[in-house]
Amino acid sequence: MRIVFAGTPEPAVVALEKLIASKHEVVAVITRPDARRGRGRTLHPSPVKELAQKHGIEVLTPSTLKPGTEDGEALRARLRDLSPEAIPVVAYGNLITPDLLDLPRYGWVNLHFSLLPAWRGAAPVQAAIAAGDEVTGATTFRIDKGLDTGVILGTLEEKIQATDTADDLLTRLAYAGGDLLVETMDGLAAGTITPHEQSGAPSYAHKIAVEDARVNWQDSAEAIDRHIRAHTPAPGAWTMLGEERVKLGPVSLIGVDPALEGVALAPGEAHITKKSVYVGTADAAVKLERLQVPGKKMMNAADWARGLGGNKEVRFS
C-alpha cells in the first residue's frame, strides 16, 4: 500500500520505523515544523522528521492544514500528487480538517493509546494510570469529524503494572501499537478488516497542563502514587515547599513501616529519618524516593533531607 505517515514525537517514531520495514511504501511524512528548544532556543526537527530524513523520505511540515492558507493549500496539492491510499497517524498534533479525510482511499488511520471509547483525547496513557485502570491498550480507527469517534479497525490490550510511569506504559504501547498499525495497513490492503462502531460510555483525557500535575496531599496514598506516576516524566508531578516548587519522582506505598511506629502525619507533613523521607496523605504515609528542588538535579530524597541540617520541620503543600 502507498502511504503517507503523519506524526511528530518520539512514540510516533516506533510506528514509522515499523511501517518503513513493512511491505508498504512510505512515500512521504507529514510532521510539525521545527521547534525551538533548549537554552539557546535553536530550531530542532521533530523525531519523526529526523527518521524520515535518515531514510531519504520526503518531509512535509505545514504549520496548519486549514484550507485557504498557503501551507494548507500546498499540502493538498502535494497529497494529490502523491496519491496515498492511506495516511496512518500517530500523535501528529495538528487538526486534520474534514475536507482532507476522504482524500486517501482508506482514509486517515489513527493509532490511539487507549481502548476506545475509553480515554478519548490528548493524554490517554496518563489518564488510565491516574484513574487506576488495570488494563489499557491501543486502537486503530478511521479519523472522522469527531474527537476520536471513528470506526474501529483494530485493538490490542496491555496490562498496567503497579509501578508503571506514563513513560513506561507509553513505551510498551508504542512498540505494540506500531505492530498493530502495520497489521491494520495489511488488513486494509487485503480487504480483511471489517470496521465496527465504538460501543460503551466514552471517557475523556484532556491535554495536561503543568498545574494539573500538582500533588494534592489530601488525596489517598494510592491516588497520589498513581498521580505522580501518571505525570512522570512530563510535565512532572510537583508540590510546594514554602515558596519553592519541588518536583517529585515516584513514591513508594509502604503499608506498615516500623520507622513510622507511633508517628501520625497530617497530609503534606514530612517525617525525616536517617535513611528516608515520609509524607502524610489522607490515609497513610508514602515514602519519597526522589525529588528535585529549584537549581538542582533530581536527587535521592534522603540525600536532600541530610542537606537540611537540623531543620526537620518540613511540610509540603
TrEMBL record:
Residues 207-308 form the Formyl transferase C-terminal domain. It catalyses: L-methionyl-tRNA(fMet) + (6R)-10-formyltetrahydrofolate = N-formyl-L-methionyl-tRNA(fMet) + (6S)-5,6,7,8-tetrahydrofolate + H(+). GO terms for molecular function: methionyl-tRNA formyltransferase activity. The keyword Ribonucleoprotein does not apply. It is an enzyme of class 2 (transferase). InterPro entries: Fmt, Formyl_trans_C, Formyl_transf_N, Formyl_transf_N_sf, Formyl_transferase-like_C_sf, Met-tRNA-FMT_C, Met-tRNA-FMT_N. Its EC number is 2.1.2.9. Keywords: Protein biosynthesis, Transferase. Residues 1-184 form the Formyl transferase N-terminal domain. The keyword Membrane does not apply. (6S)-5,6,7,8-tetrahydrofolate binds at residues 114-117. Attaches a formyl group to the free amino group of methionyl-tRNA(fMet). The formyl group appears to play a dual role in the initiator identity of N-formylmethionyl-tRNA by promoting its recognition by IF2 and preventing the misappropriation of this tRNA by the elongation apparatus. PANTHER family: METHIONYL-TRNA FORMYLTRANSFERASE (PTHR11138), METHIONYL-TRNA FORMYLTRANSFERASE, MITOCHONDRIAL (PTHR11138:SF5). Belongs to the Fmt family. This is Methionyl-tRNA formyltransferase. It comes from Corynebacterium striatum. The lineage of its organism: Bacteria, Bacillati, Actinomycetota, Actinomycetes, Mycobacteriales.
